[in-house]
Amino acid sequence: MSRKFITIILIALAVLCIWNAGSQNEPLINKRTQYGLTPTEPLENAPPMMTFTTIVMGGFRGLIADILWLRISLLQEDGKFFELVQLSDWVTKLEPRNNEIWAFHAWNMAYNVSVMMPDYNDRWRWVSNGIKLLRDEGILYNRGDPEVYRQLGWLFQDKIAKASDMAHATYKKHWAEEMTALLGGPSPDYEKLSEAQRTSMKETYKLEVDVMKELDQLYGPLDWTMPEPHALYWAYLGILRSSRKDTRSCKMMMRQTVRAINDGGYVKSFEKSRQERKKK
């Protein structure tokens, strides 16, 4: 046989082997799920690049992710936070089920990169990017992991609600403007929400009307233009969707947030009554 013919045969065999290996992927995933060897369901609605890395690269994903984690640690020690953004994004593609990388990636943008911006509006964009990362991607691939919800709630509870960042007033202003444009005010009339509002709430902000109504009934009426109710919302949603028995971190966040909301309400009413007494 000629060398050319042998080459064609080898290529055909290689293609056949690759196809056969790929065809075994779904049955293997089903077996892993059946015997409890995988903590979550297979990725659904994932972008092509993430699907490629999670399936084709197989077990090598963990090795590459570990190498990138080492590089991330070195960059963090050197304070090179912008470089961390790209590396962290790569690791989320390699290990989308790893809640730690999602938390780290969001934290880096919201806390490290944001404070490097002299303009407060630029800072808000990075904080907002951290929120969107967890809300739109992290939870998508870790729907039953309460820790991802807690990390998202923490950005509202700590980064926006508290005064530890000099730009906190700007963060509150931007968030209030977004929620006012979305809901029409601090306490929406759920029965009168338009179809466009409901669609935007669900698809853009991942806000479920039934959950918001339930929280309003339990702790409200809440002012949804403030960050605290959103910390409460994500912690509560983390409990509702959790595939784990341990949801203590979300429950603790709920208690802390409810206390902060009540304290805030008390302060407002106290200030109002004091001003009224002065007028008299």
Main beta sheet: none
Shape: globular
Q: Strand pairing plus helix content: what structural class?
A: mainly alpha
- Give the tally of β-strands: 0
Uncertain regions spanning at least 5 consecutive residues: 39-43, 265-280
Put simply, the count of helices is 13
Distance between the termini: 108 Å
Radius of gyration, CA atoms, in whole angstroms: 24 Å
Strand portion: under 5%
Q: Summarize the helix and strand pattern as letters.
A: HHHHHHHHHHHHH
Number of domains: 2
- Calculate the mean pLDDT score and round it: 79
Helical residue percent?
Answer: over 70%
Question: How does this model look, in words?
Answer:
There is one protein chain. With 280 residues, the chain is mainly alpha-helical. The chain folds into 2 domains: 25-95, no CATH class; 110-280, no CATH class. It is 73% helix and 0% strand. The protein contains 13 helices and no strands. It has helices spanning 3-23, 25-34, 48-55, 60-77, 81-94, 99-113, 120-141, 146-160, 168-183, 195-203, 209-219, 228-241, 248-279. Helix 5 runs antiparallel to helix 6 (99-113). The longest helix is centred in the last third of the chain and has 32 residues, at 248-279.
